[in-house]
Amino acid sequence: MTTPESARILVVDDVEANRDLLSRRLLRQGHVVEQAEDGQQALDRLADGAWDLVLLDVMMPVLDGIATLTAMKQHETLRDIPVIMISANTELETVVRCIELGADDYLPKPFDPVLLRARVGSSLEKKRLRDRERERARRMQHDLEVGARIQRDFLPDALPQVPGYSLAARFEPAREVGGDFYDAFRLGDGRVALVLGDVCDKGVGAALFMALFRSLIRAVLGTQRVPSADDSLGDLERRVLAVVAATNDYIATTHGRANMFATLFIGALDPASGTIVYVNGGHEPPRVVSDAGGVRAMLPPTGPAVGMLPEIPFLAAHCTLAPGEALLVLSDGVTESRAPDGALFGDDAADALLGEPAPSADALLDRFVEAVHAHAAGGAPADDVTLLALRRD
User: Fold this and answer.
1) Residue 197: enclosing H or E segment and its boundaries?
2) Three-state DSSP class for 243?
3) Which of 51, 132, 227, 254 is deepest in the core (most CB within 10 A)?
4) How far does Cα 381 stand from its chain's mean position?
5) pLDDT tens digits for 217-243?
6) Which residues touch 53 (CB under 8 Å, ≥6 apart)?
7) How do strand 83-87 and strand 53-57 relate by DSSP bridges?
């Protein structure tokens, strides 16, 4: 049985005297030692359980040291076992080749006990460090996978069904977790909130703030007074502005040291009229697509990114969707998607996709996602890709 300082070591040499000598010295150091007479026998032994180190002779019958080392480095589980080559002084050129193939060190014959202890100890310590790094990476990967599941839970399970409209969204994070988010939910008065945001930066930090932004927007809207049916458009504008202002001030005041902000589009749809009251906080301008195809209007920013400074003034604006028209909101991960040669997807390509009408919001987004994937040609995405589409039937 190994202890925290001991290791399971396989000694591979066709000379019995060499095997016995190395085994005795390693046993005195507290290690668990087993033997193999040639490379093929070594590979069979290595397939049985976990090993910490292999002492491998260069010249052997059946399967020599080079062939054995090559087979180990090509094996999924054996490649990470450190190997010390055993060599005579006349075999140094072969040892160099073994080092190039992935061997960690070499031990010359005849065996010096001090050198044996030093090189075995050095190889085992490097293995322990690698094992700790792999375990740390495994835990981090597990945490990221948990974070990705939690982040998906922050996105709506289903989008609201609005009579006379089709509503769809797509979300593809560039990493396990992302900084983009979208949302759509009823406001309690028949109107529907539409939200798409892009938190600066990427990775875990952006994902944490994504959850914060989304939760603030939901919470503030949930605590606001629901307007009566005859409330004017100005009341709805004030309601949307209040949400943006409260979110902005909280982020900037409470988390100002983090220097995190988000570009944000938040709108409120009145299904009866097709009017959308919105605030565009520094976000990529959404497109209003005509019923015949093509971009009818762009919705430029009505204020800066949200969360940069407290008490920033924002303005509300509104647009109206006629029957057959659609609103497309996207993150800059779409237009800044890169091809293998570095070329950006760009606004022109995005607008070209809108030249033909789409029968539904889903069909429109499928068209965009397919085009972005084709542009990237299988390359890793540089940023999150998020889209939200609303089409009036």
Assistant:
1) strand 192-199
2) helix
3) 51
4) 10
5) 988 876 665 444 445 567 788 889 999
6) 7, 8, 9, 10, 81, 82, 83, 84, 120, 123, 124, 127
7) parallel
List pLDDT tens digits, range 126-174.
Answer: 999 988 998 898 888 878 777 777 777 778 889 999 999 999 999 998 8
Token digits for 274?
């097709």
What three-state secondary structure class fits 338?
strand
Of 265, 314, 313, the residue nearest 288 (C-alpha): 265
Tokens of 317: 């604006």
**Burial of 362 per CB tally in 10 Å (0-12, 13-18, 19+):** middle
Q: What confidence score (pLDDT) does residue 229 get?
A: 47
Q: How far is CA 347 from CA 14, 282, 285, 320, 331, in A?
A: 69, 16, 10, 23, 12
In the three-class reduction of DSSP (H, G, I as helix; E, B as strand; rest coil), residue 391 is classed as strand
List of domains in the chain = 8-142 (3.40.50.2300), 155-392 (3.60.40.10)
List CB contacts of 247: < 8 A, sequence separation 6 or more. Answer: 213, 216, 217, 220, 264, 306, 307
CA 183/CA 217 separation, integer angstroms: 10
Bridge partner list, 344: 338
DSSP state of 257: G
* Phi/psi at 65 (5° precision): -65, -40
Read off the pTM: 0.73
Sequence-distant (≥ 6) Cβ neighbours of residue 383 within 8 angstroms: 174, 202, 331, 332, 333, 336, 337
Strands (E), 240-340: 262-270, 275-281, 287-289, 295-298, 317-320, 326-330
Q: What amino acid is encoded at 367 in this protein?
A: R
Cis ω before 359 (30° cut-off from 0): no
- Helix, strand or coil, per DSSP, at residue 322: coil
- Indicate the pLDDT class of residue 307, thresholds 50, 70 and 90: very high
Size (the chain), residues: 393
Who contacts 135 (Cβ-Cβ below 8 Å, separation ≥6)?
none
Q: Which of 198, 157, 170 is nearest to 366 (CA)?
A: 170
CA distance 145 to 150: 9
Hey, what amino acid is at 107?
L
| Residue of 307, 246, 249 lying closest to 281 (CA atoms) | 307
